[in-house]
């Protein structure tokens, strides 16, 4: 059953090809969903019964209820 009261985050791509990867809950953490964002695109993500973590590759701004942070890409 999906928890529609889970926390949301907003990811804004600051460059082409930002990857957003959803990771599962449970004994074995696995990739279960990926998205690729172009510069300027937004993705609104929710933590649910199935999603315990979100990995972001690329230059992006991440907005949560705890504040805003930019990824560091070298």
Automatic annotation (TrEMBL):
Subunit composition? Answer: Oligomer of 11 identical subunits arranged in doughnut-like structure.
Biological processes annotated in GO = DNA-templated transcription termination; regulation of DNA-templated transcription
Give one GO molecular function term. RNA binding
Q: What is this protein called?
A: Transcription attenuation protein MtrB
Annotated Tryptophan RNA-binding attenuator protein domain ranges read: 5-72
What does the similarity note say?
A: Belongs to the MtrB family.
Q: Which keywords does this Swiss-Prot/TrEMBL entry list? A: RNA-binding, Transcription, Transcription regulation
Does this entry carry the keyword Cytoplasm? no
């Amino acid at each position: 059953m999906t928890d529609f009261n889970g926390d949301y985050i907003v990811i804004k791509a600051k460059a082409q090809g930002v990857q957003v990867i959803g990771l599962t809950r449970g004994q074995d953490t696995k990739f279960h969903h990926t998205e690729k964002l172009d510069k300027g695109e937004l993705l609104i993500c929710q933590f649910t019964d199935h999603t315990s973590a979100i990995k972001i590759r690329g230059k992006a701004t991440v907005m949560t209820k705890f504040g805003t942070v930019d990824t560091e890409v070298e």
